[in-house]
Design brief:
There is one protein chain. By secondary structure, the protein is an all-alpha fold. It is built from 15 helices and two strands. Helix 1 packs antiparallel against helix 3, helix 1 packs parallel to helix 14 and helix 5 (about 135-150) packs parallel to helix 7 (about 180-205). About 40% of the residues are buried.
Length: about 375
């Protein structure tokens, strides 16, 4: 095709095939220190979502502390928390409700951050401690203490912690020399989880009737009868591990871009991935040791937080708040809607999380077909 003199040459036609995706531009307001040593990019939507989650948490905490079989006013709760309340109000708030609420908030945050890290490292929305098998590993450790050693509640918690860490070590050894790749980690973890589930079933069949009841009650996951010792244990774990996870969130975002890109940006990918996995496993193990396995919070909370913030990277702080809110609301629902029945919170999270898992699998199958 020849061009006519005095006219513009027509633009060449685009080659057939899919158009390349436009790079996502992350906008925000840069915030720097005076010396310029620290620079952050603050985005409006994640900040607004974080503030809304905090407000929702405060509202749920208020409803949890003021309502129940013995209703209290906000002033009575405030006086009880400061040590000036009456004997009944002090017992209801500081012995019955507050330890359970603090445990729920810390366990929900720990599970959500654990799931967010695993999903980012594996690049798979199914990457969570309950899918990969770390939660079942903690359950095996607890059942060994219950059925074989006949231990106390403290020993059950220690056994659950050891079981979760041992499972993570076993998964690491199975992948040794092959690299911690996302899809491979999920597949190996699912296989280990199935094996551990069979071990759990075997231990329950070998137990006495009373031991089987105790083990089954623990396996459902419950916040009932939680004392300040439980709240302090998980609170200390979250206070140590959550800041470490937030400190590594920038490297985690780079690892999400791919090993080659992260290495070019100066990130030691194998070491960073290993440290992040240790933090994730420790958070899930401590949470399971305190309450038993509470399913699907680690799976759903990070995805909900990412959709709310519309973040392309790991939103660890919104994920922690979302997980805390989900577990606190679930526990409040089972206490108020099903009273006087003592329904474990694991039943509520299992029902909601199961529906979420079905929706997630359907969405992933549609993406793969497209």
């Amino acid at each position: 095709m020849t061009a006519v003199p005095g006219t513009k040459r027509p633009a060449p036609e685009a080659p057939p095939g899919p158009r390349p995706a436009r790079p996502r531009v992350v906008t925000g307001r840069p915030v720097r220190t005076r010396s310029g040593s620290l620079s952050l990019l603050v985005r409006g939507r994640p900040v607004a979502v974080t503030a809304a989650l905090l407000a929702a948490l405060v509202a749920v905490m208020g409803v949890t502390l003021t309502t129940g079989d013995f209703d209290l006013s906000a002033a009575e709760v405030a006086r009880a928390l400061t040590g000036d309340g009456t004997g009944i109000a002090d017992f209801v708030v500081n012995t019955l409700r507050m330890p359970r609420l603090v445990t729920a908030l810390c366990v929900g945050a720990a599970l959500a951050v654990s799931g967010a890290i695993l999903q980012s490292v594996t690049g798979n929305p199914l990457g969570s401690p309950d899918i990969i098998g770390f939660t079942n590993g903690s359950a095996v450790g607890a059942l060994v203490v219950i059925v074989v050693l006949h231990g106390s509640m403290t020993q059950i918690a220690v056994g659950a912690l050891i079981g979760g860490l041992a499972t993570a070590l076993a998964v690491h050894l199975l992948m040794l020399g092959r690299g911690v790749q996302g899809f491979r980690l999920v597949v190996v973890g699912i296989g280990v989880s199935a094996l551990l589930l069979a071990v759990n079933s075997y231990l329950i069949t070998r137990a006495t009737f009373q031991e089987a009841l105790e083990a089954q009650a623990w396996l459902i996951g419950s916040l009932g009868n939680r004392l300040w010792t439980h709240a302090q244990a998980i609170g200390l774990a979250v206070a140590v591990l959550l800041p470490l996870a937030l400190l590594l969130s920038r490297r985690l975002a780079m690892v999400e871009m791919g090993d080659a890109t992260a290495t070019a940006l100066g990130v030691d990918v194998p070491r960073t991935r290993t440290v992040l996995l240790v933090v994730s496993v420790a958070l899930a193990a401590f949470a399971t040791a305190v309450t038993g396995p509470i399913w699907f919070v680690a799976l759903a909370a990070p995805q909900v937080a990412r959709r709310l913030t519309r973040s392309s990277g790991p939103a660890l702080l919104p994920s922690a708040l979302t997980g805390a809110l989900m577990l606190a609301v679930s526990d409040l629902a089972v206490q108020r809607l099903f009273a006087p029945a003592l329904l474990p919170v694991g039943t509520a999270t299992g029902c909601v999380g199961g529906l979420y898992l079905v929706c997630l699998l359907v969405a992933e199958s549609r993406k793969s077909r497209a």
